[in-house]
Amino acid sequence: MGVTRRTLEKKKSQGEKIAMVTAYDFPAAKIAEEAGAEILLVGDSLGMVVLGYESTIPVTLDDMLHHTKAVTRATKQSMVIADLPFLTAHLPTMEVLKSAGKLMQEGLAYGVKIEGGEPVLDKIRTLTDAGIPVMGHLGLTPQSVNQLGGYIIQGKEEPTVKRLLSEAKAVEEAGAFGLVLECVPEELAEEITKSLSIPVIGIGAGRYTDGQVLVLHDLLGMGGEWSPSFVKRFASVGDTMKNGLEKYVSEVKNKTFPTEEHVIHLREEVKLALYG
Ligand code: KIV
Ligand code: NA
């Protein structure tokens, strides 16, 4: 057994930080697990990061399933959580159960993540009762980007601070085993973290959450020039890739690749028989 919800609860109670990162394919999942990340999130950010969409809204359950399968083929220890894509959590209960069930049964995910508070509490309860571990997601919820009016910091004014606090508690009470808090002031994230017994994982939520999550391509520097201010670039993988590819292209063009060491030859007797 790899990382479970118990592992995470223990880490919270011992004050040990939890490292979570997105993963969308086999090689990246393998590397992230080897690097020690406890949770791999097959985020619907895959729509933007690896499928080239403008937002997460076009991502389908089949997209999620396809990538979740690749990620779980690579992992032995890390907990794999798959996002329920746009709209899915708001469909009739049977549909939500089927979708989340697919991500576990076919995708082999440990559990699912659902964006939102009040409107999805009953679904969190139903899934949890059915044995599907659910991670909540509050604050900036990218599936609601059009409704929110953009990727805007959440919980800056008193009423939204209070609402987020009570929604976080409600998500825990509905049975969620963890909560992602995105793009909220540090003070609010700290208060939520202290008031919940389930682990709270922050992204752009400051220093005092129980753990951090970032989009893999952002933290590795392979997501283009722009990234949000809360992202730290830990590597420049995009530059490394471009460099390698430029060398390859130029060696093909100037005939320095391939050389003798990369060449396959006919055996001598075959050569003789063919060409004398
Ligand atoms: O889809 C995603 O990558 C996410 C994280 C940013 C939490 O939901
Ligand atoms: Na997501």
TrEMBL record:
Supply the SUPFAM superfamilies for this chain.
Phosphoenolpyruvate/pyruvate domain
Name the positions where 3-methyl-2-oxobutanoate binds: D44, S45, D83, K113
Where the protein is mainly located, per its record?
cytoplasm
Pathway involvement of the protein, from the record: Cofactor biosynthesis; (R)-pantothenate biosynthesis; (R)-pantoate from 3-methyl-2-oxobutanoate: step 1/2
Which compartments does it reside in?
A: Cytoplasm
Query: Which BP terms in the Gene Ontology apply to this protein?
Result: methylation; pantothenate biosynthetic process
Q: Which residues participate in Mg(2+) binding? A: D44, D83, E115
Q: What's the top EC group for this one? A: transferase
Cofactor comment text: Binds 1 Mg(2+) ion per subunit.
Gene Ontology cellular component annotations, sorted alphabetically: cytoplasm
* Reaction catalysed by this enzyme: (6R)-5,10-methylene-5,6,7,8-tetrahydrofolate + 3-methyl-2-oxobutanoate + H2O = 2-dehydropantoate + (6S)-5,6,7,8-tetrahydrofolate
Q: Where is the active site?
A: E182
Cited InterPro entries: Pantoate_hydroxy_MeTrfase, Pyrv/PenolPyrv_kinase-like_dom, Pyrv_kinase-like_dom_sf
Q: GO molecular function, one example?
A: magnesium ion binding
State the EC number(s): 2.1.2.11
Q: Which cofactor does it need?
A: Mg(2+)
Q: Report keywords, A-Z.
A: Cytoplasm, Magnesium, Metal-binding, Methyltransferase, Pantothenate biosynthesis, Transferase
Give the family per the record.
Answer: Belongs to the PanB family.
- PANTHER family hit by this protein: 3-METHYL-2-OXOBUTANOATE HYDROXYMETHYLTRANSFERASE
Task of the protein: Catalyzes the reversible reaction in which hydroxymethyl group from 5,10-methylenetetrahydrofolate is transferred onto alpha-ketoisovalerate to form ketopantoate.
Q: How does it assemble?
A: Homodecamer; pentamer of dimers.
Q: What is this protein called?
A: 3-methyl-2-oxobutanoate hydroxymethyltransferase
Organism field: Shimazuella alba
In the UniProt record, what gene is named as encoding this protein?
Answer: panB
